[in-house]
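Look at a sample.

——
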Amino acid sequence: MSLTPEQNIKGFIALITDQPSVFLAENRMDLEQQIDTFSEESFESLSDDISTWCRKYPDIRKALRKTIKNLFGSTPKNDRGQAESNPKPKPKDYKTDIKNKMRENFRETNKEQKLSDSSK
C-alpha cells in the first residue's frame, strides 16, 4: 500500500481522537511541546515531522500503522466521495486540527498536570 502524506496526517489525527489511551502522559507532554515545531510548509514536511516524532514511541508508531491500515487499507486512492467539492485543507489546517484533537482527547493529562502543579 502506498501511503500519501495526507493519509499519514489523517491517520495521526484519527489515532489521537479514537485511541488517546495509546499516548502516555509523557508522550502527550512531549507532543504538546513539539507540535509547534512541526512544519506547515507542505503535507510532506508535516507528515515527516509526525513520522519522526512517532519513531521515538514504538507503541504509538505501531498503533498509527494499524489505524492507517484500517482507514485506508482497502480503499483505492481514486475513491472519491461528495466531500471532494470542499476546499482542500492546507497543512496548517491539519496542524490546527491536531492541536484541537489533543485538547479534546488529552484532557486527563491536562487535569493531572494541574493537580500535580497545585500540590507543589
